[in-house]
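Aggregate trends can hide what the representation actually does to any particular protein. In the encoding step, the backbone of a single protein was reduced to a row of integers, each denoting a local shape. The record that follows shows the chain in one-letter code together with its fold in token form.

***
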Amino acid sequence: MPRRRLTQQDRQRIAAGLTDGLTYREIARRLDRPASTITREIARNGGPAGYRPQQAHQATVQRARRGTPAPPHAATPPIATMEQEIIEMAVRAGMPRTAARVHHDLALSEDGRRTAAELTRRLKVSPASVSVAVNFLVQQGFVRRERDPQRRRDIYVIDDDAWYHAIMISERQTLQTARATMAAAETYGHDSPVGQRLAKTAAYLERVSLDVMESADRWRHLLT
């Protein structure tokens, strides 16, 4: 890949990618650049939370005129890299990206609590994006919603039991699927190939779900 300088347009696309919650690797892919180039660019110009394309471009032009190298702290902090990888793992597991970022930010907060305004400001996303993300997390049991009566606002909380509730909600949904599948098997008839296939699927899903729920109950004390 030929080595060429980032343009101001490239930096605007980097900023847009950060706002959308893209990984450094995905931003690099869209710009047809090495991931290391994007990592250094963001790290030397304020990090993911403070990156400003116009200032980054002006700073690069000034460094080029002076012939000075990038600051010695240009490498991406190990913690930032680790956090990005955790978010990526959640996305690969099926969680929407903004929901993964909200979940991670709540998990790292001192008391596990944030308002929608705080999440919007910290993650640099729109209030609508935060609303969709927290609704998903609440429905899946990862987060619960509390009401602040004094300020008339919602507070989103992640507590010690979050993973327990998330697992139980997921397995109850799987049980519903198993029972619907068994009903379909009965409709087709257990003597038919389709009915037999559906019945086997339903029995498997039901047994696994019950085992997981039993295990979640048995080990719940580890969370408290």
Summary: The two ends are 52 Å apart (CA to CA). The chain has a mean pLDDT of 87. Residues 162-188 form the longest helix (27 residues).
